[in-house]
């Protein structure tokens, strides 16, 4: 039995797609970036080192908050909540689970993943290779509906990252100081917050679920604010992915002693 | 500035057909539909094509141009190189009737399955009162011209004929979202969207938004908000519990 665009009764054209543009370029590009991030993050969380620069109080976002007794001295500025982790368990596992969960269930990344990794579809009017399609109605994809809970988690981690950012204003003599690392951390913070606040679940929670905006003027204002950010959610998602990697790589390099931090003040 | 444009137009019916090559005069400022009309007038008088307003407002001349779902009347010829072959086929999600004309009755069937606007039982005609701020969100969806390009490009039915029965497509899920966001609509649209119209099939890959000639943000403003409303009802225990305790409508 013919399937898809070759189904009985439809125009018999013979070619799966007649698109002449480079429709494969965008999913390929996004797929490479996502693949790189997955490999990089996996390697980094299993390294369990080079995440803290004691001299300037730089803590990478991939290990924030560091709350186990396995953490290097000074990096647990929120205290130690857990004992020592076995070597096989990364001690940033909770951070990673929440942040990967937030991005993995995000509506933008779902689009990117379906297009680039699952070809469902790779591009518009390009046939997908799957014989059957059930969408997000069954396990495991039905779990993507938990996105809002990861959003709540991302909000908490976002606040913790701001605390880390304030700690990063630490000078060589122990007082106030600014280095290139501080700037990178704050650029990353801004991008992370733009990504988090522009989230579709956030838009729904602050006011989207209402039927009558006129009865909730404050929530309408929140919704209007998030609605202005929301069209750029995908852009913020990709930029913040790059800034997280850049921030982590910079702190890793300084922590490992590959180069020293460029100091602007103290 | 005129030139001879190279065209490949699908000719045939539900029994079969193929792409035929034509050379047709193209003049400055023309759109694909102008050239199709010239082709009909000069070389292929039996070419079947559905059209009406020539202004992107009636939604009749939907087709696929170089593989992308588009309105022929809104696709300008100066977006192609002069030596480029322009391929025009009927929409590939619906049964073909003849040449560029398809049978879009699937859409009318789905439209009929959506209950009309349902005001509260105690509200009589003439008593409807609402504020602009409450209705303007769903007014974006009223721009829809029902060209069905979003339905045509949606892979859920384009690539899986068997899903047509249980999935209504972006145009009609947007209609349900419009009603659900309406301040005076009292029907249960969320359950209906998920269980009867297949909202869960949508994997928000945004092709409907990409092809919409009215630039309606179908995915961001209708489908995702509708999915979140369904999450409130079906998948979020905290919201469910909160609604039970407070018993307060939003």
UniProtKB/TrEMBL annotation, chain A:
Keyword Transmembrane attached: yes
Top-rank lineage group of the source organism: Bacteria
Entry's transmembrane regions: 23-47, 88-109, 141-163, 175-195, 236-259
Sorted UniProt keywords: Membrane, Transmembrane, Transmembrane helix
The name this protein goes by in its record: Uncharacterized protein
Organism annotation: Kribbella caucasensis
From TrEMBL, chain B:
GO terms of biological process kind: respiratory electron transport chain; tricarboxylic acid cycle
SUPFAM superfamilies: 2Fe-2S ferredoxin-like, alpha-helical ferredoxin
Domain of life: Bacteria
InterPro entries (alphabetical): 2Fe-2S_ferredoxin-like_sf (IPR036010), 2Fe-2S_ferredoxin-type (IPR001041), 2Fe2S_fd_BS (IPR006058), 4Fe4S_Fe-S-bd (IPR017896), Beta-grasp_dom_sf (IPR012675), Helical_ferredxn (IPR009051), SDH/FRD_Iron-Sulfur (IPR050573), Succ_DH/fum_Rdtase_Fe-S (IPR004489)
This protein's record includes keyword Transmembrane: no
Gene3D superfamilies linked: 3.10.20.30, Alpha-helical ferredoxin (1.10.1060.10)
Entry's Gene Ontology molecular function annotations: 2 iron, 2 sulfur cluster binding; 4 iron, 4 sulfur cluster binding; electron transfer activity; metal ion binding; oxidoreductase activity
Keywords: 2Fe-2S, 4Fe-4S, Iron, Iron-sulfur, Metal-binding, Oxidoreductase
Pathway terms, separated by semicolons: Carbohydrate metabolism; tricarboxylic acid cycle
All copies of domain 2Fe-2S ferredoxin-type, residue ranges: 5-92
Keyword Oxidoreductase: yes
GO terms under cellular component: plasma membrane
Cofactor: [2Fe-2S] cluster; [4Fe-4S] cluster; [3Fe-4S] cluster
Family label: Belongs to the succinate dehydrogenase/fumarate reductase iron-sulfur protein family.
Protein name per its UniProtKB record: Succinate dehydrogenase / fumarate reductase iron-sulfur subunit
Organism for this UniProt entry: Kribbella caucasensis
């Amino acid at each position: 039995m013919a399937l898809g665009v070759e189904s009985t009764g439809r125009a018999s054209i013979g070619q799966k797609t007649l698109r002449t543009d480079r429709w494969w370029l965008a999913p390929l590009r996004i797929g490479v970036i996502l693949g790189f991030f997955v490999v990089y993050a996996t390697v980094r969380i299993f390294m369990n080192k080079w995440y803290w620069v004691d001299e300037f109080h730089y803590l990478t976002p991939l290990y924030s908050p560091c709350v186990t007794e396995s953490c290097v001295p000074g990096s647990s500025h929120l205290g130690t909540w857990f004992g020592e982790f076995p070597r096989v368990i990364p001690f940033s596992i909770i951070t990673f689970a929440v942040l990967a969960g937030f991005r993995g269930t995000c509506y933008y990344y779902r689009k990117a993943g379906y297009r680039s990794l699952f070809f469902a579809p790779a591009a518009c009017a390009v046939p997908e290779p799957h014989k059957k399609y059930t969408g997000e109605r069954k396990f495991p994809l039905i779990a993507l509906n938990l996105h809002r809970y990861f959003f709540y988690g991302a909000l908490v981690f976002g606040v913790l990252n701001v605390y880390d950012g304030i700690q990063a204003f630490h000078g060589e003599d122990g007082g106030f100081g600014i280095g290139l690392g501080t700037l990178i951390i704050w650029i990353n913070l801004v991008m992370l917050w733009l990504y988090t606040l522009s989230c579709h679940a956030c838009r729904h929670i602050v006011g989207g679920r209402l039927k009558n905006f006129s009865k909730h003027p404050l929530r309408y204002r929140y919704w209007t604010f998030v609605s202005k950010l929301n069209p750029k959610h995908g852009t913020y998602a990709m930029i913040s992915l790059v800034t997280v990697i850049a921030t982590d790589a910079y702190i890793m390099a300084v922590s490992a002693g590959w180069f020293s931090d460029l100091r602007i003040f103290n | 500035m005129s030139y001879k444009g190279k065209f490949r137009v699908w000719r045939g019916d539900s029994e079969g057909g193929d792409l035929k090559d034509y050379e047709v005069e193209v003049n400055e400022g023309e759109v694909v539909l102008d050239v199709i009309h010239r082709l009909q007038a000069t070389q292929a008088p039996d070419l079947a094509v559905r059209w009406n307003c020539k202004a992107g407002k009636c939604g009749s001349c939907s087709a696929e141009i170089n593989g992308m779902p588009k309105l022929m009347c809104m696709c300008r010829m100066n977006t192609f190189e002069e030596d480029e072959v322009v391929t025009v086929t009927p929409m590939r999600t619906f049964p073909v009737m003849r040449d560029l004309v398809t049978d879009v009755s699937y859409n009318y069937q789905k439209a009929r399955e959506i209950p009309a606007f349902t005001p509260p039982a105690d509200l009589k005609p003439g008593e409807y009162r609402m504020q602009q701020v409450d209705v303007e969100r769903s007014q974006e969806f009223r721009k829809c011209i029902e060209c069905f390009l979003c339905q045509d490009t949606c892979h859920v039915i384009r690539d899986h004929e068997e899903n047509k029965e249980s999935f209504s497509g972006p145009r009609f899920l947007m209609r349900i979202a419009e009603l659900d966001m309406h301040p005076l609509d009292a029907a249960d649209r969320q359950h209906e969207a998920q269980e009867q119209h297949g909202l869960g099939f949508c994997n928000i890959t945004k092709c409907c938004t990409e092809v919409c000639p009215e630039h309606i943000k179908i995915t961001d403003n209708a489908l995702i908000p509708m999915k979140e409303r369904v999450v409130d009802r079906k998948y979020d225990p905290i919201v469910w519990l909160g609604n039970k305790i407070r018993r307060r409508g939003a």
